[in-house]
Design goal:
The complex is a heterodimer of chains A (about 350) and B (about 260). Chain A is built from 14 helices and no strands. With about 350 residues, chain A is mainly α. Chain B has a 6-stranded mixed sheet with strand order 6-7-8-3-9-10, sandwiched between helices. In chain B, helix 3 runs parallel beside helix 5, helix 4 crosses helix 5 and helix 5 packs parallel to helix 6.
Chain lengths: ~350, ~260
């Protein structure tokens, strides 16, 4: 999937982009049409392009006000989590880094738990989770910078400490309000729930800003893969790159988590699967992670809401259940693909 | 263009004083070897010159005050090759060499035609163009070291700072890589400052040697003059013999403590 002329840099090629777009299109189509209410493909297309179709008002409503917003939200969240995961892995040169590394998940979890336990309106929940996530990462950063030997390792350890601490507080709050236990638990396991296009519009600005900043740093992340000293010796302002990329990834992840709860695994397996197939260049890994992360989460969400229909599985269960075997498959075959 | 001048360079890590007022110079096109026992401050000297450790004193190259330059401007003047360069296993050789162009590309910019040509020429100059599409993980130690030099060459910096450039290589590859460095500096008029462990090779390839010990310059001059048996023995804490190689150079041989060459 990468150009291999000896005097060309590895870069995103048209076939790779087309495969990515095809994956998204396929996932969006399946996600929009499959569900308890049958919607025929050709009639849905007619309706969406504005010509007359035989869809009933109810079918049309389900398509445009229920399924499409949910599919788009799933795509945005999956895209952001995969992009953020790839960025964290690049900045920290750690294959196990995921978007929740610096305490985003624990902070968002605490914010959401407090909001649910206090009986806040559902509309307040995303704001509470978002605020918790941002505060947690800011605290991790401050803690990481306060130690004498500043390094990426001290930042990661600060993240571990912060996450443990906030999870302890969250568990305490949860235990004190057992009446909302089930609701908190459901949020923590992740769920894409939409009320029309509200959530999509809510997180879109953060995702656009976060995603753009990350993609603009694709060459910088390649330089950073040489480590801090060599990158500095090549004239790269390592601290600035790290702050901007981690900041952008955190902002986007916090927004995603605010509307979807904690969806694990996407941020780790999607970038790794891409990397195994295409090689180490972030100018390929980042855009393809965004595309395949979107397709993957749309399919995972489709599975979550249909497999036990009318009941719904937490999406985090599905991402791990589908993701783990898929990843093993890529791991076993990737060397042959390259 | 004038060469490298380092005056009264001091580096402190916490409470440890690593360099205690080091002065070194290298004329344009000259290859100066920095020798000295472990912990003498050789690597720190190179790091201070390319600006990745804080220092005080004066460092100028080509008339530029290295202390006042931005990171990118400094990297356009001096290329640094660490003792063990990072080698992301699944990175393509050409992409790796292209990273050497970083100081010439704006913060969010992307390589232009000239960057691609320079990287290609650097690989070709080291006879490694046919490796352009290989992955770093597929290279041998010697091949990788050549690719690292290609990256440094692509940087188009007139000063080459090498930290033990051949420490991971066998004798044959050590000679080959050092000969390549020698050829490159002559072809591109590069000033080379390299930390060297192997004193024999240092004597054979460097125009001049600087002996560092405990963060200070002990002596500085022609290799035959610096490689004095008693001086080296004293600072390395080892008994050595300096032999004539019969070709105008010298060979430094370590000898076992009891005075007899090691044998079984």
């Amino acid at each position: 999937m990468s150009v291999t002329a000896p005097d060309r840099p590895t870069r995103l090629t048209l076939p790779a982009v087309l495969i990515g777009l095809a994956a998204i299109l396929g996932a969006v189509t399946l996600g929009s049409l499959v569900g308890p209410v049958h919607i025929p493909f050709d009639e849905a297309i007619k309706r969406l392009v504005g010509s007359s179709s035989t869809l009933t008002d109810r079918q049309a409503d389900i398509l445009t006000a229920v399924r499409l917003p949910r599919v788009v939200l799933g795509g945005l969240v999956g895209s952001m989590l995969a992009l953020a995961g790839a960025s964290y892995q690049g900045v920290f040169r750690n294959p196990l880094a995921d978007p929740y590394l610096l305490g985003v998940a624990a902070g968002a979890g605490l914010g959401a738990t407090v909001a649910i336990s206090a009986g806040a309106a559902p509309a307040v929940l995303p704001a509470a989770a978002f605020a918790g996530a941002i505060v947690a990462v800011a605290a991790t950063y401050a803690l990481g910078r306060s130690v004498r030997q500043r390094s990426t390792t001290s930042l990661i350890l600060a993240g571990v400490a912060m996450a443990s601490f906030l999870t302890a507080v969250q568990t305490y709050v949860q235990q004190r309000h057992t009446d909302t236990l089930r609701e908190v638990y459901a949020w923590i396991l992740g769920r894409l729930s939409t009320s029309g296009w509200h959530e999509v519009l809510l997180i879109l600005p953060y995702l656009v800003i976060g995603g753009t900043v990350i993609l603009l740093h694709r060459r910088m992340l390649d330089v950073l893969s040489l480590g801090e000293e060599e990158a500095s010796a090549l004239g790269v302002p390592v601290r600035r790159v790290r702050l901007l990329v981690v900041g952008a990834a955190t902002l986007g992840t916090a927004a995603a988590v605010a509307v979807s709860g904690l969806i694990g695994f996407v941020g780790i397996i999607v970038p790794h699967a891409i990397r195994l197939v295409t090689g180490a260049s972030y100018r390929v890994i980042l855009p393809l992670s965004a595309m395949f992360g979107a397709a993957f989460l749309i399919i995972a969400d489709l599975t979550a809401r249909t497999i036990l229909s009318p009941a719904e599985l937490p999406i985090g269960v599905v991402t791990a259940f589908l993701g783990a075997p898929f990843f093993v498959l890529v791991l076993r075959t990737a060397k042959g693909l390259r | 263009m004038s060469g490298l001048s380092v005056g009264d360079l001091r580096v402190t890590f916490g409470t440890t004083i690593v360099l205690k007022g080091v002065s070194v110079s290298a004329a344009r096109g000259e290859w100066v070897g920095v020798i000295g026992p472990n912990g003498a401050g050789k690597s720190t000297l190179l790091r201070a010159i390319h600006g990745t450790v804080p220092w005080s004193g004066a460092v100028t190259f080509g008339g530029h005050d290295m202390g006042t330059l931005t990171g990118a401007a400094r990297a356009r003047l001096a290329a640094f090759v660490p003792q063990r360069p990072a080698a992301p296993q699944d990175m393509r050789v050409f992409d790796y060499v292209l990273l050497g162009r970083s100081p010439h590309i704006s913060y969010l910019g992307i390589e232009g035609r000239r960057d691609l040509t320079t990287a290609r020429d650097a690989l070709e100059s080291l006879g490694m163009l046919s490796f352009a599409d290989r992955l770093l993980g597929e290279l041998s130690g010697g091949e990788f070291q050549q690719v690292v030099l290609a990256r440094a060459l692509a940087q188009e910096a007139a000063l080459l700072l090498l930290d033990e450039p051949t420490s991971a290589l066998d004798i044959g590859h050590q000679l080959h890589v050092l000969a390549l460095i020698d050829r490159l500096r002559r072809e591109h008029d590069l000033t080379v400052l390299s930390a060297m462990h192997d004193l024999t090779l240092a004597a054979q390839f460097c125009d001049r040697l600087v002996l560092l010990s405990h963060g200070m310059v002990v002596t500085d001059g022609d290799p035959r003059q610096v490689l004095d048996a008693s001086l080296i023995s004293q600072h390395y804490g080892a008994t050595i013999r300096i032999l004539d190689d019969g070709l105008g150079g010298v060979v430094v041989v370590p000898v076992r403590k009891n005075g007899q060459p090691a044998n079984r």
